[in-house]
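Prompt: For my understanding, could you write out one protein's sequence and backbone structure tokens?
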Amino acid sequence: MSGRCPLYPQKRTSLNATGILIVFAVILLGIGIYQSTFIAHLETTGLRAQGEVVRLKEEYNNGHYNYFAIVRYRAANNMTVQFKDEFGSNPPSHRVGEKVTVLYLPDNLSKAIIDRGMFWNWSIPAILFLFFACVVGIVVWVLRVPQYPPAARLPCKGSNGPVIPVSG
């Protein structure tokens, strides 16, 4: 035996949870980078067109309904395109017949969003990066904070217990 005790179950559990948090952080980072790249590409190379909400699509999710705008717009090449907006809400954020500005990619007309302005277009990537930072902060905190004080450690199997200095 090396004289060292194996990790205690509490420590092992926190390391398992830390591993799960790290995987979650990597997923958040990946989705955030993808969304940022998509929005940046739309903002730099995309075109804007006038669109109209032609209907609302109702979808049931997590115990409640969300309403997604179905938007029709005419692209620069005079082609009429229809798409479902990515963001649903309840109550609906748009009404049928409402005019909206559409931001779309000229080389892929189906890649379109309702242009909500610079702040709102970037809100989802910003929220993803904020959650990523929070998860990383939790991981750092878990790894730095001792799980239990040294005096509370249990003796290893086969030992006489922890050595406690006695003054006298």
